[in-house]
TrEMBL record:
Family as reported in the entry's similarity comment: Belongs to the diaminopimelate epimerase family.
Pathway listed: Amino-acid biosynthesis; L-lysine biosynthesis via DAP pathway; DL-2,6-diaminopimelate from LL-2,6-diaminopimelate: step 1/1
UniProt catalytic activity: (2S,6S)-2,6-diaminopimelate = meso-2,6-diaminopimelate
Active site (UniProt): 80, 224
Naturally occurring in which organism (per UniProt): Alloalcanivorax profundimaris
Lineage: Bacteria, Pseudomonadati, Pseudomonadota, Gammaproteobacteria, Oceanospirillales
Protein name: Diaminopimelate epimerase
Gene that produces this protein: dapF
EC numbers for this chain: 5.1.1.7
Keywords on record: Amino-acid biosynthesis, Cytoplasm, Isomerase, Lysine biosynthesis
Listed PROSITE patterns: DAP_EPIMERASE (PS01326)
Cellular localization per UniProt: Cytoplasm
Assembly and interaction partners: Homodimer.
Broad class of the protein's primary localization: cytoplasm
Length: 284
């Protein structure tokens, strides 16, 4: 079967976006075979992406679309902040909706995406989940920080759930942070039973941070929207950051706002790169 797709990115966190409304993709179970998913995600043999995003019909009243997310390793996940902005832009560009405020359901819950006239998209990422079981993270009790032993070293970390799990470490300089070595160790740390996204945060001042994220199932990306939100709320919980924070990532800048009430709001751009078609196995 020939699959139509759009290549997009949110600050260099890149996506293959597929319309599953007009193309016959299975709604239960994976939309593509695992072999296709991994092949398409490969940067040498396929399209290359950090995540595959699939638009499907909603399963609940009052929701516009179902938003499905797959990491390049084939795992399905329930949150992707940069992807949510691209998803909003995609459904509008493709004429699937004319709404400026779009409600989508993910495997974890509902998200609201607001497209503004300046082309930016604000995503309500929901409230942070601190209870260890909700992250999920193995700890006796909820705390602001935890000591995590990895290899020969112990690290003071914060842990938070945003529909996906995040661990956040403070570093003096993101340029020299051990993202490539410690990132994979943390991703598969035994205390995170569903693996974890690992953020390395450098605080510049109370309203500005620099961040690198080693993403679960994708490796280090140029930006991670949920990672940016996780870093900000963890910094706030430690009393180090204000309600509105500018997050500098390798691919660009996001604005994150959280005042302790309602959801975390993340604002940033969403860019279309090109449209394409590629052969995949016919869905089962
Ligand atoms: N790039 C994303 C997060 C994608 C999912 C993540 N790798 C996970 O497995 O939880 C973002 O912008 O939030």
């Amino acid at each position: 079967m020939r699959l139509r797709f759009t290549k997009m990115h949110g600050l260099g966190n890149d996506f293959m976006v597929v319309d599953g409304l007009s193309q016959p993709l299975p709604e239960d179970g994976p939309p593509l075979s695992e072999a296709d998913l991994r092949r398409l995600g490969d940067r040498h043999f396929g399209v290359g992406f950090d995540q595959l995003l699939v638009v499907q019909p909603p399963r609940h009243e009052g929701v516009d679309f179902r938003y499905r997310i797959f990491n390049s390793d084939g795992s399905e996940v329930s949150q992707c902040g940069n992807g949510a902005r691209c998803f909003a832009r995609f459904v509008r560009d493709q004429g699937l909706t004319r709404k400026h405020e779009i409600r989508v359901e993910t495997a974890e819950g509902l998200m609201t995406l607001k497209v503004t006239d300046d082309g930016l998209v604000t995503v309500d990422m929901g409230a942070p989940r601190w209870a260890p079981a909700a992250i999920p993270f193995q700890a006796d009790a909820e705390a602001d920080t935890y000591i995590l032993v990895a290899g020969q070293n112990a690290y003071e970390v914060s842990a938070v759930g945003l529909g996906n799990p995040h661990v956040v470490l403070l570093v003096e300089n993101v340029n020299t942070a051990p993202v490539a070595t410690l990132g994979p160790e943390l991703e598969r740390h035994e205390r995170f039973p569903e693996r974890v996204n690992a953020g390395f945060m450098q605080i510049l001042n109370r309203r500005e941070i620099r961040l690198r994220v080693f993403e679960r199932g994708a490796g280090e990306t140029l930006a991670c929207g949920s990672g940016a939100c996780a870093a900000v709320v963890c910094g706030q919980r430690r009393g180090l950051l204000d309600a509105t924070v500018t997050v500098h990532l390798a691919g660009g800048t996001l604005q994150v706002h959280y005042d302790g009430h309602g959801g975390i709001r993340m604002t940033g751009p969403a860019s279309r790169v090109y449209d394409g078609e590629i052969d995949v196995e016919a869905p089962a």
